[in-house]
Amino acid sequence: MANNKSAKKRIQIAERNRLINKSYKSTVRTLTKKTIDNCEKYKKNPNEETKSLVITSLNKAFSLIDKAVKKNVLHKNNGANKKSKINTFVKNILITK
Question: Which of 18, 43, 47, 65 is most buried as measured by Cβ atoms within 10 A of its Cβ?
Fold first, then answer.
């Protein structure tokens, strides 16, 4: 355990940052899954409504990944890989239908 005031404060800050980072990473995973689910819905029932759901969820996922990279929660290459994976999946679904 820390003995001086500054070390105790750093422990508190590190814990706060860990929770914020955990939240970002969890939300990125959730939005990725939602985008893939919306793609599956579009694959089963291709219409304009489901297509707009796919595009909206894709934009939200990209936005959050970019914010996580900007705040150094994710490394820029890791963020780019996540975006590429989602985009490839979406493109394959939208082009085939």
Answer: 65
